[in-house]
UniProtKB/TrEMBL annotation:
Signal peptide: none annotated. The chain crosses the membrane at residues 37-58, 65-83, 89-109, 121-138, 144-165, 177-199, 219-238, 245-262, 282-302, 309-331, 337-358. This is Ammonia monooxygenase. It comes from the Eukaryota. Keywords: Membrane, Transmembrane, Transmembrane helix.
Length: 377
């Protein structure tokens, strides 16, 4: 039974709600005061462990992903009612891993051509969660509302997932295979995207604080880049947008722009130029959104001939790995290079990734094969 477009919308909405709640928990229920900074490594370490743990189960039964996600949401809901402590952060990290890993597997089920759009819609929920921290209401009221939202989201996702997720379907379309990227390149892009996200969430606020610039968190450009670019790649009006070179070129462009915008942010902060800083931050968010969508689209196309459970767990593991590597690099480089030097040095990483992707541009013969297959269909 094939999932319909309507079912894809429902599962995307449910996943976006689940990730919005999880990101709000991360923003409102952090570690206890006085805890070591090493506590922040709990999320990537536990996430990698849960990814490896759930892989055999999800390979045997991909449709069980919805039930596991609902369990993780219930675990997070209970966390909202307990006092803040050292262990509450670890519990939140563990529950978040049980939410995110099977959730990504659920989003990769269905039509491979629209998997990138489903992932982008779910990632948009991550941007909505921190906005809860700006609500002016008593903490007790906010905790109760979070718990109610968690349990209602768990029930909603369980109902949607069990009603819409079916056995994955394979595609033997050679044009779809020719129009994608190797899994290693796509997963490396996921690592790079989450590394840049960790820089944006940790190093960038530090730079603003050290140089006296007010940090206005505007996730709208990143959200628009996620939704617009995902729809553009999935529903391209021109055939060349779906051709073999399209995804590698989009990855190269987004990585190179991210590298240039990171150096521009560092120079604008040191030069106290508010207008340039705003422009470079906007460019950085747009390039990051395009990088996330392009890697998600590539992984979605790979589900036509690889198991979605394997790709979903690999996607989650790559995201947790990118977050952990980003934290390690920032901790090691800050004492040696300072905040500005660290930002400029980290800007070299997406540039190196862009050169890596250039090596995987398809040959002219492969592009001709794609157009021949596309014309035959």
């Amino acid at each position: 039974m094939k999932p319909t477009t309507r079912s894809g919308l429902w599962i995307t909405l449910s996943a976006s709600m689940a990730l919005a709640f999880q990101s709000s928990v991360d923003a409102l229920l952090p570690m206890a005061p006085g805890a070591s900074v090493m506590v922040f490594f709990a999320r990537p370490v536990l996430g990698l462990g849960v990814s490896a743990l759930l892989l055999p189960l999800l390979e045997r039964s991909p449709t069980s992903a919805g039930s596991i996600t609902a369990l993780g949401l219930a675990m997070s809901g209970a966390l909202a009612l307990v006092p803040q402590s050292f262990w509450s952060y670890h519990w939140a990290a563990l529950a978040g891993a049980f939410v995110k890993v099977p959730l990504l597997c659920s989003l990769l089920l269905g039509d491979p051509a629209w998997a990138g759009w489903r992932l982008a819609g779910a990632f948009y929920g991550l941007l909505l969660g921190p906005m809860v921290a700006t609500l002016h209401m008593p903490e007790e009221t906010l905790r109760v509302l979070l718990a109610l939202f968690a349990f209602s989201s768990a029930v909603f996702h369980f109902a949607v997932a069990n009603g819409t997720l079916h056995a994955e379907r394979k595609s033997d379309l050679r044009s779809l295979v020719l129009a994608t990227l190797p899994a290693s390149v796509a997963l490396s892009g996921v690592v790079m995207a989450w590394l840049l996200l960790s820089v944006q969430l940790a190093l960038l606020p530090l730079l603003h604080a050290l140089h006296g610039h007010p940090l206005a968190d505007r996730p709208l450009p990143l959200g628009l880049a996620l939704l617009v670019s995902s729809f553009w790649l999935c529903h391209a009006p021109y055939p060349w947008m779906k051709s073999g070179p399209c995804l590698p070129l989009a990855l190269c462009a987004s990585s190179a722009i991210a590298a240039l915008s990171m150096r521009g942010v560092a120079q604008a902060i040191s030069g106290h130029d508010a207008w340039q800083l705003t422009g470079y931050r906007l460019l950085m968010q747009l390039s990051l959104g395009l990088l996330l969508v392009t890697t998600g689209t590539a992984l979605g196309r790979l589900t036509s001939f690889l198991p979605s459970a394997f790709l979903g767990c690999a996607l989650a593991a790559a995201a947790f790995l990118g977050e952990g590597v980003g934290l390690v690099l920032q901790l090691l480089m800050l004492p040696a290079f300072g905040a500005l030097g660290t930002m400029k040095a980290l800007a070299l990483l997406p540039l190196c990734y862009a050169f890596l992707v250039v090596r995987h541009l398809p040959s002219p013969e492969a592009v001709d094969d794609f157009h021949d297959c596309d014309g035959a269909e």
